[in-house]
Amino acid sequence: MAKLANFTPTILKNLFSKPATTTYPFEPFKYPEGTRGHIEIDIDNCIFCGMCTRNCPTRCLTVDKANYTWTINRFDCLACEYCTVVCPKKCLHTVEGYQEPMPEKSSVSYRKSEEAIAAEEEKKRIAAEKAKAAKEAALKKKAEEEAKAAAEAAAPAAETVAEAAEAAPAE
Ligand code: SF4
Ligand code: SF4
Hints:
Elements lengths: L1 H15 L21 E4 L9 H5 L5 E4 L4 E4 L9 H5 L5 E4 L12 E4 L2 H54 L4
Antiparallel strand pairs: 1-4, 2-3, 3-5
């Protein structure tokens, strides 16, 4: 009887409190705070610098700058989050929820949107035009400086010839 009396507060508490279990799947499952689910990328902000690939401890990332793609082998990812720390554009982040089950080990690729690619190409074109114009201007300036230096070097020689002609006795 004394033992039952000891349990009474616990029994009463459990009778009037919410169940400790969740009602999943009738309610969405809530991940505990700080859960490292999987890595996602905001691909349109990626500059394909490769910092994430070089620093990933499992080498599960690949970046293809020419084709604007970023690829992850989710089966090899440890969810250590180091790639999110080193990314200079902060376009990598950990999201709740684990990777989708797959029938075989494979990688997932993300490609920049066509709009973002077009904007990137336009930026490259403008930068290339600016570089070309700067190179042409530098070449032109150099040619002008060389021509000026040649003219200055030729001037004293011409003066010496004129002076010699003047000094020569008339016949
Ligand atoms: S570090 Fe960031 S910006 Fe660089 S390739 Fe990886 S995801 Fe893209
Ligand atoms: S979370 Fe860690 S293991 Fe996964 S891709 Fe990023 S750096 Fe690699």
